[in-house]
Design brief:
By secondary structure, the protein is of the alpha/beta class. The chain contains six helices and eight strands, in the order ααβαβαββαβαβββ. The chain has helices at 5-15, 27-36, 52-59, 71-83, 122-131, 163-168; strands at 42-46, 63-68, 90-94, 106-112, 133-144, 176-182, 185-189, 195-207. Strands 1, 2, 3, 4, 5, 6, 7 and 8 form an eight-stranded mixed β-sheet that branches. The chain starts with a helix and ends in a 7-residue tail after the last strand.
Length: 214
């Protein structure tokens, strides 16, 4: 893959990050999958990082395409999958999602904290994510709705959208059922063990009918 600004940024980020960070699943994601998608199939994890979500999904029986722009992150996903005994169900794939997107359709597409300081067409990427969901499948979007003190956004004057506003940017039309659209508060733990109360937008939508690719 041709090196891009995004690739260079995230490669530097993961090269300097403790290898243990991000190796546990997001508890919101795991709870939603357990409740709304209990029967494993194929999954697409966008911006997988060190693979905490992807490896957990594979351990539940999912076959996961784990996507990130950082080769270092994907190497660590592969190593973590091997250590967990789920390497045959993890398929690392390197994409700069501003320029390329995995082929195929998936029973579960997850975008957990798909944020970046590099400018990308995020709404367009998430619309492509929706288009990749099979009929009966689930799209999960978990995004920041407030700023943690350790965030790269800390100190910035940011106006976060409501979950309803985020959902509207997908331009889904008919053929979808909203399972969750909410913004609960939770206690987050930072990379140095610090804690803070944060808010997340949680969007879980099920595709109920076929629709054209975006």
């Amino acid at each position: 893959m041709t090196e891009t600004t995004s690739a260079a940024f995230w490669e530097k980020h993961y090269a300097g990050l403790d290898t243990g960070w991000g190796t546990k699943p997001n508890v919101i994601m795991s709870g939603l999958v357990t409740a709304l998608a209990p029967h494993p199939g194929t999954a697409l994890d966008l911006g997988c990082g060190h693979g905490g979500d992807a490896i957990w999904l594979a351990a539940q029986g999912w076959h996961v395409t784990a996507v990130d722009v950082s080769a270092t992150a994907l190497d660590r996903v592969a190593a973590g999958a091997a250590a967990a005994g789920v390497a045959e169900r993890i398929h690392p794939a390197r994409h700069d999602l501003a320029h390329s997107f995995p082929e195929g359709e998936f029973d579960l597409v997850s975008a957990t904290y798909f944020h970046t300081p590099i400018e990308i067409p995020r709404d367009e990427v998430l619309r492509r994510a929706a288009a990749a969901v099979t009929p009966g499948g689930l799209l999960l979007i978990i995004e920041h709705a407030s700023t943690a003190p350790w965030s790269w956004q800390a100190g910035q004057d940011i106006r976060f959208p409501t979950p309803e506003a985020s959902l509207a940017t997908l331009h889904l039309g008919d053929g979808w059922h909203t399972e969750r659209c909410e913004a609960p508060a939770r206690t987050a733990i930072g990379p140095a063990g610090q804690t803070a109360t944060v808010i997340d937008n949680i969007i879980a939508i099920r595709r109920t009918a076929a629709h054209s690719k975006l």
